[in-house]
Amino acid sequence: MAFDTILVANRGEIAARVIRSAQALGLRAVAVYTTADAQAPHVALADEAVWIGDGPVGDSYLDAGKILAAAQHTGAGAIHPGYGFLSENSEFAAAVEAAGLVFVGPEPQAILSMGNKAEAKRLMIAAGVPCVPGYEGADQADDELIEAADGIGFPIMVKAAAGGGGRGMRLVQSKTDLAEAISLARSEAENAFGSGELILERAIIAPRHVEIQVFADSHGAVIHLGERDCSVQRRHQKVVEEAPCPVMTPDLRAAMGAAAVNAARAVNYRGAGTVEFLLDEAGQFYFLEMNTRLQVEHPVTELVTGLDLVAMQIAVAQGDHLSLTQDDVTFTGHAIEVRLYAEDPANDYLPATGPIDLWHPATGPGVRVDSGVVTGQDVSPFYDPMLAKIIAHGPTRQVARTRLIKAVRESVLLGTVTNSAFLADVLDQKVFAQGEATTAFLDQAYPTGFPKTQPHAQDAALALALLLDADAKRAREAAGYVSEDQLGWSSAALLPLNVTLTIAGQDLHLRATATLAGWTIGAGDETFEITLTTRDTDMIRARVNGKTVDVVALLSRDSVQIAVGAERMTFSRVRPGAQDETVVAGGRVSAPMPGLVVDVTAQPGQTVTKGDTLAVLEAMKMQHQIMAAVDGTVSAVHIKSGQQLTAGDVMIEIEET
């Protein structure tokens, strides 16, 4: 089983994470990459990198043949799949072993058994692991599922048997909505996983989502490394994870840990795995699923245990015994992680693409940032929108939380839209701060969605000061030598300059006057005296009405991106005479993001009402229903299934009635 070269069959932050641990063990690390990822950090970190395609995952990271060929070409003796992509593909694991290579993960049969929710649940029931009542039968006819749901009772969860990450999953409150939910879940599951098999489970309302990290070697030893609370979720996707769980007790940890170990033993598990449970208010827990791979949130476990889980994976894959027993596992302090996504929380969390003009991860005591991007890179529509994980550790939960809020604010990504303001707001919510968040937390905290950022007058004034300061600098450079005592001198009072800035479609009217020290800028009824005191590349310190303000800023001639706290804003200057020629009628339906057209239900001449589904667009591994915004008749359909769209492409036109 010994090997000296390992190929990492993944991308982004997890590929970089695995490469670093492999190299620390003295191993040679090989990366694979696409044209879209040519500038990604994991490519630069690796000892060797192999190109496997242009971008789409089906022709690159999901192409087992290309991965195996890259391993054989580079002399790799093992393949680490990371998470996502091929990490839970039993056929790929078998192909790796058939090629004489080591798969850094469990045996194919364990992946197969636990990868199908129906089979996994049957195994867990047999092993005595508590499970949620439901239906996991082989008969997949709609009528059979509907009849089974009647016996389970509503509300009910419809889940893809082969799924994960919230895809192919629907919460159904009543029988009248069940048929449509089955259809949508099955379609999403078929597109995401190649299988439309579904299971049903009784919905446990507002539980905690608590998972146990297990580890097993090939010699029969199985231990657990404690729990992680992953209750803060949207659309069944995790947003915040922490260890330990805020309501955990020694007895409950022992019981959940024992159940997780039994689950792993039931499938002769090997390597790192996670057994996920739902924990209700009464302290009862129920098996949810087992992820037969490393988890995105593994850093919080590493920080509280002091262990390197990737190094442990590699050691087990080499045939080593686990280096510790259950009694050796200890926990120190508290750790919390958030996921920085390229998405717009104020626009229903739609994924975003675009350039990364600046990436400046936070540093500091107890702070760790695992990222998969660099300045100058583009965010591609082909992959998951996660850009980085920001993690903080401290002696107490409160210290970890406050460190993390600061780290989120100081991890600045400019260019594309991110969820940084949303993350900071979540961490600052009273319910989360008190450790009371359940899976219902986000819906309760933001019942109408995350509010759109409203720019503060001070931010707009500071943005204008930066633009005008850049103008002045260009003018001085063009004018040649001007003595210091003449800079800013005038024989007459300077007239105010009226400037309009726009942000997210909103016009802001400002007045600016130059002073010897800087600028006086008026915004509505407010006036700001601004002096730019320090400029260190993109890091700027200003005095605003006598107070020190630190911002990160990137300027072009007529726009400025600034980061203030956790907010990321782009202000653009409106030049006199410029006109906005963009006119969108209420009946014109445009792509809200780049994506692949999965289904088109609208037909020319069809009568539709507001809220009707017109098409389904897949972007960054999730499917989004495109709905009519008006009542009317479909006058034109410009798309077809399988078509790749860019943001703003006109999809469908409706003649309003």
Automatic annotation (TrEMBL):
Species the sequence originates in: Phaeobacter gallaeciensis
Domain Lipoyl-binding, first and last residues per copy: 580-655
Protein's UniProt keywords contain Nucleotide-binding: yes
SMART domains to which the protein is assigned, alphabetical: Biotin_carb_C, GARS_A
Alphabetically ordered keywords of this record: ATP-binding, Biotin, Ligase, Nucleotide-binding, Transit peptide
Alphabetized Gene3D superfamilies for the sequence: 2.40.50.100, ATP-grasp fold, B domain (3.30.470.20)
Pfam families: Biotin_carb_C (PF02785), Biotin_carb_N (PF00289), Biotin_lipoyl (PF00364), CPSase_L_D2 (PF02786)
Example GO molecular function: ATP binding
Parts of the chain that traverse the membrane: none
Domain Biotin carboxylation positions: 2-447
InterPro entries: ATP-grasp, BC-like_N, Biotin_BS, Biotin_carboxylase_complex, Biotin_carboxylation_dom, Biotin_COase_C, Biotin_lipoyl, CPAse_ATP-bd
Protein name: 3-methylcrotonyl-CoA carboxylase
Cofactors: biotin
Domain ATP-grasp, chain residue ranges per copy: 121-318
